[in-house]
## 1
Amino acid sequence: MGRPVPLQPKGRPVVVGLQPVALIDHVARVDWSLLQDIPGERGGSLRVTEEEVVRILEEVKEHTIPTPGSEVIKVLAGGSVANTIRGLSGGLKVPCSIVGARGDDDLGQMFQQNLEQAGVDLSSLRVSSGSTGQCVCLVDEDGNRTMRPCLSDASHLRAEEITRDDFKGAKWVVLNGYGFYWPDLTEKAVELAKQEGARVALDLASFEVVRRSRPRLLKLLESHKIDLCFANEDEARELMKSEGLESPEECLEFLGNFVETAVVMLGPKGCIARHGKEVTRVAAIQGIKAIDTTGAGDLFACGFLYGMINGLSLEACCKVGCCTGAGVVLGLGGEIDSAAWDWVYTQLQQHHLPVRENIIKSSQMLRQESPQVEVQVL
């Protein structure tokens, strides 16, 4: 899988994430009856208006499932790329930055503070007049999530605003399929990343995003400018629908024609991955109780990228991804709390995967400074 990434000069990120719109997630566990009255398919991500967000949040109060030790509605910085970058920076101590835009409102300030607490470099996060994006994440009693983002009036980054300086010195640039709501921006970011000599990772985001943006996604993959691609089973199936292919294995082989490394995440069944001609299958972590799967793929990507950065084998990268992906489902929202990070570090050690000494020290400091939340294990 290559050599470890050398230490960066002070102040330079190893990983840069592109998230055109800053998002605040409103996460709640609800009964299924609420979802019957909300437009779109369960389990997907369909854009809604600000008025619909307000209506959904009002209805959530009547349909919540109590979660011990958590708020009825948990509010935190969200967005797939932000989830991945926050995990890499805060939990795995990889220097990261995020390129994007937030509004000049209270929600934008909340987004910034949450990522600052995780140590993310925000020098490329623009602040513009306007509102910050929001997303309602509805979680059923089995932990499956349905997302309804509101981006219509949100402040967002424009293609003409980004430059090579935003990606200077980066070894990896992380993109997400949601970026294809602004295709010119995403395509320019890929070009700038390549000019800087960075490798590019792309997560397909959701089956609805793949359905909407399939031609552009395929065009980008066929350009061979994407080095690493993540997809879950639903996204893989949607991508392959017109090809007459359905299985994760077939999707993995298809993606392998365009990218150096491809991963299909299989939820509780683990994952399959391909690097060149090498293919591996890794089982998921067993014996845990999933509270909320929001961010599971994002945090899998966080762990997998950590393995890539440190020159681990394909199998080891998958195992790290399975550990971090499992860690986030132990609580609400796409963020691993300090107690769950301790659990992740223990899992990494038990699976004989490398954990840097600075990560363990940071974990010990967090244990002393933060109240501990019980991790629910079956």
## 2
Amino acid sequence: MGGRLLNDVVSILVFVVLDMVDFFLCYAFKIADFLIEAEWKPCYCSSAKEAITSSGKILVSEEGESKKIVRVSCSRLQLEEISDTLYTRPYFVSEVCKSKIRHSSAPRRPTFTVNPTIVEMLQGRIGKHRILPAPSETLYPNFSKSAKTKYRFLAVDLLGFGRSPKPNDSLYTLREHLEMIERSVLEPYKVKSFHIVAHSLGCILALALAVKHPSLLKSLTLLAPPYFPAPKGEAPAQYTMRRIAPRRVWPVIAFGASIGCWYEHISRTACLVLSKNHRLLEFLTKLLTRNSAGKLEGYLEEVKNRVKCNITIFHGKDDELIPVECSYDMQSRIPQAQLKVVENKDHLTIVVGRQKAFARELEEIWKNASGLS
């Protein structure tokens, strides 16, 4: 109890200071942009209706219940749904005041944290038709010879990761990621059917891919899916943002997630100092502030009604990044899914450290799926 109180007090002090730092950095970057590039550049901390990119303009329409964003790039005109977290990320003091009012009459649920910087989004393998959630050096060597002979395995680096492009004018939406997978994997390798295995935030993309190509899907395997069903009356994206980044100094992963999600200008500064690619942290922030939380409910409903293949969910019982309750909640939305809770494993050791066992489990899933097809 004493440790929790100390964490709360220190967190309040630290994040109030960060609020002020981010506020002043906002104007510092505006001035720097004007002096260096001779133009003011709107940022996401405001509700600006126009944001300038390096290759065009982003026009935001606020009419109706959901915002729409029309992006004019050098090659195409796009209409995107955007999350209310993109332009609505209140400072800590404001959020605390609202939180006290919001939860004054409701029991407080325990807070779990997610470190978005260590989540591997669909870093895996598409084999003849398989998508694996772990790097080849950890999982691929553990597959049987028959599996390696029977299937092709292709590593997927999503936009902004690894050797994939990091386009400055990209909004890194789910649609853009799906198009990238289709153009760089499904189409050139003429994939006619596939099994999907996805880890953590990659599960959202995997669900979207399953909904878009249900007839091609042979099986769907999800590891530690980040599903946080929002209470009635709360915006899904805002609720998920608060669960992922609770603005606490401890544990360290919570602090890192909070900086990346809530403080655009501090993140930009960190990128300038620490990263060769100054847009990487900005990309991670964009990724977490897209409208994926709102779309996830729709994906689950579509999977429940349209996807006929085997669906398996794995979750480490000791996962403190994404609590096992997320998988139980997801299974309640997809009754046909089989949930396997692995004892004494967490967010990473659900695969790392048990590669051989997990490889055998995947091969069994694929074998059973082939028998049903």
